[in-house]
Amino acid sequence: MHLQILGCSGGIGGANRSTSFLLNDSILIDAGTGVGDLSFTALTRIEHVFLTHAHLDHIACLPMLADTILGSRSAPLTVYASKATLDALKKHIFNWAIWPDFNKIPNSEAPFLRYATLETGQSCCIEKCTITAIPAVHTVPAVGYQLDSGQNSIIFSGDSVCSPAFWDIVNTTGNLGHLIIETAFSNREYQLANTAKHFCPLTLLEQLKNLSRPCQIWVTHLKPADSELTMQEILQDNKDLNIRRLEQNQVINF
Ligand SMILES: [Zn+2]
Ligand SMILES: [Zn+2]
């Protein structure tokens, strides 16, 4: 199985794209601006979208994806998320004011877009990949995801400052290969990071002390203004940690 990083920046501008990962051609994990770089044919292959939360940098391309591929697919696009996230999407995005309600057109019986509730702890198996929603701590209801190919697992924290429940799952995942974890801000934005419930290097490194299992750690969601500084702050004095910056267009095989 493969996970292609369509976007992993905490912002836009130039080559920066916000969070979206393409799993095995038909599954999106978040739908940030990276989705917009896919070809039309690649867009039509997307059948499932798993959202970590409703923040705009993670859903920005979902409305236009639905609009672009409607009529080119025989089956509906399915959006998986917690009830709280789906309620926010229905109320604030697919509400006819911002964008049409594709769950009602062409009709409610056979809509272009359907919703599937996936709460923390629940799993869904698609194309032999088990996708499990795992606990996250953010300013709005949020989850992370474990992607388990059977041979290997990727755990993605989503936007989160993590919790004991999160580390319990990480540390009991026997086939853990990769941990994708966010660090949005540099240490000079320590206060803002705490308020926004994002990591900065200080809080990331403190939480990583809970990791008791070897794996490749990938840092994602770096804000463009301080991305180099943030990685320097993470790596200085921590050369022994197996930690690298997640790169756009990178493919993780697992
Ligand atoms: Zn967020
Ligand atoms: Zn975000």
Class from secondary-structure proportions: alpha/beta
Listed once per kind, the bound small molecules are: zinc ion
Kindly report the CATH topology.
Metallo-beta-lactamase, Chain A
Spatial order of the strands forming the largest sheet: 6-5-4-3-2-1-14
- In CATH's first tier, which class applies? Alpha Beta
Record keyword descriptors for this entry.
seven-stranded mixed beta sheet, 254 residues, single chain, binds zinc ion, 14 strands, Metallo-beta-lactamase, Chain A, Pdiesterase2, alpha/beta
Strand and helix map with partners:
Blueprint: E1 2-7, E2 20-23, E3 27-29, H1 40-44, E4 48-50, H2 56-59, H3 62-69, E5 77-81, H4 83-92, E6 113-117, E7 123-126, E8 129-135, E9 143-148, E10 153-156, H5 164-171, E11 176-182, H6 190-195, H7 201-208, E12 216-220, H8 227-235, E13 243-245, E14 251-253
Parallel strand pairs: 3-4, 4-5, 5-6, 10-11, 11-12, 12-13
Antiparallel strand pairs: 1-2, 1-14, 2-3, 7-8, 8-9, 9-10
Bound molecules: zinc ion (2 copies).
One zinc ion is lined by residues 53, 55, 138, 159.
